[in-house]
Amino acid sequence: MRVLAILAAVSAAMAFAFYSGVFGWRAGSPTPLHGFEAPFVFGRFQLPADNPLTQEAVELGRRLFYDPRLSGDNTVSCSTCHLQRLAFTDGKPTAIGVSGKTLAFNSMSLANLMWGPQRFFWNGRASTLEEQALVPIQHPDEMAQDLDDLVDELGEDETYRLLFDAAYGGLSPTSIAAALATFERTLVSANSRYDQFLRGEVSLTEQEELGRKLFMAHPDTKASLRGANCIDCHSQFLTSGFNTRFDGFVNNGLDPEAELPAGLEEVTGKPEHRGLFKVPTLRNIALTAPYMHDGRFGTLKEVLDHYNEGIRVSSTLSPLILEASNLDNASDDHVSLNLTAEETAAVIAFLHTLTDMDFVTDERFSNPFPTE
Amino acid sequence: MKVMSRQAYVIPVLLLLAAGAGGALYVGSRPAPTVQLSLRFHPFVGEEVLQLEQGRYANPGGEGMFKVRDIQFFISNIRLVAENDVFRETDSYHLARFDSEDGMYVIGLENVTRDSYKHIEFGIGVDPAANGTFASVGDLDPNGRMAWSWDVGYKFVLFEGALELGDRRIPLVYHVGFDENYMQVSIPLAAALFERQEATLDLRVDLLQMFKGAQTVDMSALSNVKFDRGDARILARNYHRMVSLCPAPGRTCDEEG
Q1: Which residues, 6+ apart, have CB-to-CB distance to A118 below 8 Å?
Q2: In the 8-state DSSP scheme, what is residue A37?
Q3: A117: left (phi over 0), alpha (psi -120 to 50) or beta
Q4: Would an 8 Å CB–CB cutoff place B148 in contact with chain A?
Q5: Are B53 and B67 in contact (CB under 8 A)?
Q6: CB-CB: which of B144, B224, B231 is closest to A235?
Q7: Which of A299, A353, B151, B249 could form a disulfide with A194 if both were Cys (CB 3.0 to 4.6 A apart)?
Q8: What is the 3-state secondary structure (H, E, C) of chain B?
């Protein structure tokens, strides 16, 4: 009965528009972005009071996102490492920027960024999208651009001058960051087969449905409940990490104690945060290989194998991973989910239902330059 | 001579009547005095102040020492009960947690009608009606850490940590959240609390009561509780009594302890 109630409400709520009359616009102000929608089940989100969603800001942010002039040598744009066809990832284990060096971290997908952990980068070092946007631009190995030089360079372009004036009343590093953040906030992925299933429009196959149930369950042998334990870190609708405090950061057993990287500890200074990284959204996960913060796994099968038999124990490992097993007589020495091959395949089949082809082909998110 | 029509008399009379009625309405609806009430929840493990991650506490029913990594629980449907009146907070779902700088959890109740309240009442957990929906009300979030999944509902109480037993480190995972585990709490209050415009009520949360209330738990024997109703019932009956008033009004539980 609960499922039926959810399906009905989800269907009814899909057309829920968030922005009508919220900001009390004055004549001459930028135009509120009309028609922006997100599924009811994604829940609430907050926008910065000084950076509302406006049509002008979205247009400007999209242009900046795809413009290689944002890098010092005009060869790298945000879209170099965040390709729409790969759900805004780059297919590489870790990113490569203007210096040609292999960087430390995997390029994260950009989808549904207003939900889930509101800290950005794998170690959460940016607390807003605006703050995040300026970091790779200035990083010597990523885009190597001086912000004052960038303002001068963009200021020579009349189109940019007009767009910045219309959106923010002027061109500055702050307005560059605000526009990029605004465009990123519009990158909503909400029409995968899983979304269609939630709206009651399609059924999942038997295998996908088994995978969904396993995804949503922490195993409990005492209650004869089998589970793949995904939901302990990835929320049921968003599939992202949790947005409360640092609940969206987890040590998922990639490294033993002696090799634990700093992770969130670099931000908080707390030893209990060593080796914790941001839990990413699993939306479009079949398109965003390789996986993990360092891109160490090439396929979803390798990811499932890790959770099933490759967990490395350390002092900050999530107890939910340490404790989770589908076998009653699991040993202390070997942490394993003990899923069957059939169950592993089912979870992977479910993960494929999170692919949203509309999202990766949506013209509103595409490169604006070739069409001009 | 200009003769005023009947309508010309009627309109001022109606205006006077309307003004009088408005004045009476104003007098009648003058806001009652209110109180801003802060509920401060102070976490303890027995007599010791909770120290997340750092503290070590004796296994209440067996050997070994345990540590607490995370503790979160819902406080729902807060009511203040007077002789002839009840103040109810709307959308009253609060997720208590103790990882802020000052280590306590605070709920602010605005515009509480001043009255001689005898009891504060609330639920530990989520009432069955709210547990059966996925609306984002208060701190209820279907994409949050406390959401199990839509056909299971919410965890009411989440306790995660580890039991250190010799060389072994046993993960502790206690997630409780069947509908029958929603526990109503009623705590008597001193009427003097509401005599000022701002008031603070200090409450003590003793996490040890989860394992040492109606039934004592050996954490090595019962290191996890999730979907077994019998096990969940043991913890729920225990946590039913884990919140109490701090002993000295106007002072924090820490000062008293």
Answers
A1: A127, A128, A243
A2: B
A3: beta
A4: yes
A5: yes
A6: B144
A7: A353
A8: CCCCCHHHHHHHHHHHHHHHHHHHHHHHCCCCCEEEEEEEEEEEECCEECCCCCCCEECCCCCCEEEEEEEEEEEEEEEEEECCCEEECCCCEEEEECCCCCCCEEEEEEEEECCCEEEEEEEECCCHHHHCCCCCCCCCCCCCCCEEECCCEECCEEEEEEEEECCEEEEEEEEECCHHHCEEEEEECCHHHHCCCEEEEEEEEECCHHHHCCCECCCCCCCEECCCHHHHHHHHHHHCCCEEECCCCCCCHHHHC
* Cα distance between residue B230 and residue B241, in whole Å: 18
pLDDT attached to residue A28: 56
Quick: pLDDT tens for B2-23.
444 444 444 544 555 555 555 4
B154-162: average pLDDT: 97
CB contact under 8 Å between A237 and B175, yes or no, is no
Task: Look at B7 and B193; give whichever has higher pLDDT.
Answer: B193
In 3-state terms, what secondary structure has residue A225?
strand
Cβ pair A165, A149 in contact under 8 A: no
Tokens of A356: 């949203």
Pairwise CB contact (< 8 Å): B149 & A216 = yes
- Return the H-helix or E-strand segment holding A302: helix A300-309
Distance, in Å, from the CA atom of A251 to the CA atom of A367, rounded to the nearest integer, reads 36
Give the dihedral sign, CA B91/B92/B97/B99.
Answer: positive
In contact, B118 and B126? CB cutoff 8 Å:
no
pLDDT at A198 over 60: yes
Q: Rounded mean pLDDT of A302-315?
A: 95
Q: Are B144 and A272 inside 8 Å of each other by CB? A: no
Which of the residues A218, A257, A272 would you substitute to probe the B interface, choosing the one with the greatest number of B C-beta atoms within 10 Å?
A218
Is the CB of A217 inside 8 Å of chain B's CB atoms? Answer: yes
**Percentage helix, strand, coil, to 5, in chain A?**
40, 5, 55
Q: Which helix (H) or strand (E) holds A250?
A: strand A249-250
d(Cα B23, Cα B84) in Å, to the nearest integer? 28
User: B197-233, pLDDT tens digit by residue?
Assistant: 899 999 999 999 999 988 999 999 999 999 999 999 9
Q: Nearest CA to CA, how far is B99 from chain A (Å)? A: 9
d(CA B101, CA A150): 40
Reported ipTM: 0.89
Lowest mean pLDDT among A37-41, A160-164, B193-197: B193-197
Pairing of strands A249-250, A277-278: antiparallel
The predicted model scores a pTM of 0.89
Nearest to A220 by CA among B201, B126, B145, B152: B152
Please give the backbone phi and psi of residue B14, each rounded to the nearest 5 degrees, phi first: -65, -40
Q: Which helix (H) or strand (E) holds A200?
A: none
Is the Cβ of A5 closer than 8 Å to some Cβ of chain B? yes
Query: Hey, is the C-beta of A257 within 8 angstroms of any chain B C-beta?
Result: no
